[in-house]
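Notebook entry, structure prediction.
Reason for the run: the old model in the group folder had no record of what sequence produced it. Starting over properly, with the input documented here first.
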Amino acid sequence: MKLPPRREASFGEAESQKTLQDAKAAKTKRGNAAFQLAWLNRRDRPIDIACLDLGPALVLLLPGEPFVEYQLKAQQLRPNAFVYVAGYGDGGPGYVPTQRAFLQGGYEPTVALADPSAEQIIHEAMKAVMKK
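New structure, fully documented this time:
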């Protein structure tokens, strides 16, 4: 699957380059700008999701640091199985909030690199790899 990058100007290449090159900018802001540039440079490279199906138990590997709602969705997809969700299968997108979390705010949605539409894309990929 491919997760689209954020669309806000502050997450764009020009703004991220500007922040990265600003020696007076806070280290955290410069670090976030560097992560954003790396994410933009690899946006066309697909991310794999894997699911190890052991019959009564499944291990689902998702990208980034997914919110707990992805675990809950995985359990809904296979309600009669023990489902374990692990993150960081690919660290590129960083935090992976839900669309709702972007509206609620907080630290993670503020620095997440993938667009809020990533939730639906991940759900579709989860359905595909978790089929019986």
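Summary: The longest strand covers residues 57-61.
The old model has been moved to the deprecated folder.
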